[in-house]
From TrEMBL:
<feature type="domain" description="N-acetyltransferase">
    <location>
        <begin position="1"/>
        <end position="139"/>
    </location>
</feature>
<dbReference type="InterPro" id="IPR000182">
    <property type="entry name" value="GNAT_dom"/>
</dbReference>
<protein>
    <submittedName>
        <fullName>GNAT family N-acetyltransferase</fullName>
    </submittedName>
</protein>
<dbReference type="InterPro" id="IPR016181">
    <property type="entry name" value="Acyl_CoA_acyltransferase"/>
</dbReference>
<dbReference type="Pfam" id="PF00583">
    <property type="entry name" value="Acetyltransf_1"/>
</dbReference>
Length: 141
């Protein structure tokens, strides 16, 4: 017997199965996936004050999250965190890095750090533009 479930009727295990199935299928199509989590965190007196998290795959750094405690923003910690992730990715053999943001100020910071806007979608969320930025260290063949 088949049965549709919607929204909250699906539990975390079901949602994980959907996500994992899509990722597995895509990676099987592309072949040669070497996906590996990448992360760094800056601590002060044992307290996390900045960090980043993403993955490296197919010689690309994908930055999913870049965060700085609100009271510590404007001190250059976001840029320092990004440079830490980039250094790790370069050691892994990555040739470029991809990051997205909905914040114009963050996009300007990434451009200042060598990223180029390759796409943007105005009003992705009302009042916000989605910026996709790429930094190339070595051109791909």
């Amino acid at each position: 017997m088949q049965e549709w479930k919607r929204d909250q009727e699906l539990g975390p295990v079901d949602l994980d199965a959907i996500r994992d199935g899509v990722l597995l299928h895509g990676r099987q199509q592309a072949q040669g996936s070497d996906a590996q989590d990448i992360a760094c965190g800056l601590y002060e007196n044992g307290r996390l004050i900045a960090g980043g998290w993403g993955r490296t795959e197919f010689q690309r750094l994908y930055i999913s999250y870049l965060w700085v405690r609100p009271e510590r923003r404007g001190e250059g910690l976001g840029g320092a965190t990004l440079r830490q992730l980039e250094a790790q990715a370069l050691r892994r053999g990555c040739v470029d890095a991809l990051i997205e943001t909905l914040l114009d100020d963050a996009a300007a910071l990434y451009e200042h750090l060598g990223y180029a806007c390759i796409a943007h979608l105005h009003d992705f969320v009302p009042g916000f533009t989605r910026h996709t930025l790429l930094k190339v260290w070595k051109p791909r063949d």
